[in-house]
Design brief:
The radius of gyration is 19 Å and the shape is elongated. The protein has 9 helices and no strands. The protein is mostly helical. 42% of the residues are buried. Helix 3 (60-89) packs across helix 4 (91-98), helix 3 packs antiparallel against helix 7 and helix 5 runs antiparallel to helix 9. Helices cover 76% and strands 0% of the residues.
């Protein structure tokens, strides 16, 4: 087994052994599916009662992807904890004894972050979509409806990159407090609020979460632009995180 493969295997072992990080990863499943079900049932009731509370831009295709926008908060916590837990606990010194080359250790950790996020995201995104359509009853649509397969694939890419972005910011901060205090409120509500304020409406389009959501917007014409913007943010976070990791204890 090569040193890189051994480092990746060790990171997978650590992921399963650190309960808080593993729980955050698994929480993505019930949060996404539960919100998908509630959203579908709520929309069904609103449609059948002609409720004015139903969003004017509602479509069953897009509704099937709404749940993961809340579930992503668990993956952001996962991305932060998988890196920060080793710094705060002092386990990073042990890891560096086992894998002295910091670049290899960092790359292995990020590879495991991406692989774990994608492995959980793929089935959950599909199940969440199907659960929403089931809850919508006669108002639901099939999973192969126009634009849906691309949006589902885009959702996997979005969640994986957001997990890596969170991990990169945690490596920069070397703790969980600042990344979580900034990322969770921003993704949950901050960027949405800024998107309706005239002074920040254009700028907020280039925030990672707002740009990235174009990837999972059914029929979006800006999906590739959103992907490019999110990718730039993610690469920048990973590079800056590595530079800080390389100088740890310096």
């Amino acid at each position: 087994m090569s040193e890189t493969a051994a480092a990746i295997r060790a990171e997978f072992t650590k992921l399963r052994g650190i309960s808080g990080t593993f729980v955050a990863l698994l929480l993505f499943v019930p949060v996404s599916v539960l919100i998908a079900a509630l959203g579908g049932w709520s929309a069904k009731g609103a449609i059948e009662s002609d409720s004015p509370g139903l969003r004017s831009d509602f479509t069953p295709e897009q509704a099937g992807l709404d749940g993961i926008l809340y579930g992503q908060l668990a993956l952001i916590v996962f991305g932060v904890l998988i890196v920060s837990s080793e710094y705060t606990s002092g386990m990073m010194r042990v890891s560096l004894l086992a894998v002295p080359r910091r670049g290899r250790l960092y790359a292995a950790k990020m590879a495991v972050t991406a692989a774990a996020a994608a492995a959980v995201a793929i089935p959950v995104i599909v199940v969440s979509y199907l659960v929403t359509q089931f809850a919508l009853g006669p108002h639901g649509v099939s999973i192969d409806a126009s634009g849906v397969p691309r949006a589902l694939a885009g959702a996997v890419v979005y969640l994986t990159l957001m997990s890596l972005f969170a991990a990169g910011t945690a490596a920069m901060a070397r703790s969980a407090v600042v990344p979580l205090a900034v990322l969770l409120p921003t993704v949950l509500a901050g960027s949405q609020i800024l998107s309706v304020v005239g002074a920040t409406k254009e700028v907020v389009r280039y925030l990672p979460d707002r740009a990235g959501t174009q990837l999972l917007t059914v029929g979006s014409q800006d999906a590739y632009t959103g992907f490019a913007v999110l990718l730039v943010w993610t690469v920048a976070a990973l590079v800056l995180g590595y530079l800080r990791h390389r100088r740890w204890d310096a």
